[in-house]
User: What shape does this take?
Amino acid sequence: MTLIVFVLSMFFSATLLFFVEPMIAKMALPMLGGSPSVWNTCLVFFQAVLLAGYLYGYAATRWLGRRTQIAVHVALVLTPFAVLPLHIPSGWEPPAQSSPVLSILGMLSVAVGLPFLLLSSSTPVLQRWFSQSNDKAAGDPYFLYAASNVGSMVGLFGYPLLLEPTLRLSTQSQLWSYGYALFVVLTAVCAARVWRS
Assistant: This one.
């Protein structure tokens, strides 16, 4: 049972990561247009936050005691509910006369920064937790990357082929929020299993 919960948690975190990038971009494009500077800024933002999530995951699992890191991480994964469902902040408009880069980075930080950071941190955090569990496969937790990779592929192909053409953006955002809530529940179950081990 422990193995299944960890696999599902890794799968959902990767799927949500790959769903949210094009969804937020689609929300912002009517205001921004499709210029190369807009796309490049979005790519830089998501790559930087992904790296920051990995850095947080590494630091938390390296320098915090197991129970402290579990408590901190579970508390942190609950905080994005303050910004869900995802949306472009009201009143936000890109500057008309100057480069929109800083404005776009600020908007993305407010709209999706925290949930994206925490989802991206799930790979190192959950792998470390699983390796500390009592599961018989805990000695080799790297198969969890396979679950993450499958989730990435589902998100990468599922958004443009299934979600985007069939659902309105508001429905997509609501559905993404439900997916995030499921991820939080799975992460809490993983945390509880490691806490007791």
Observations:
- The chain has a mean pLDDT of 89.
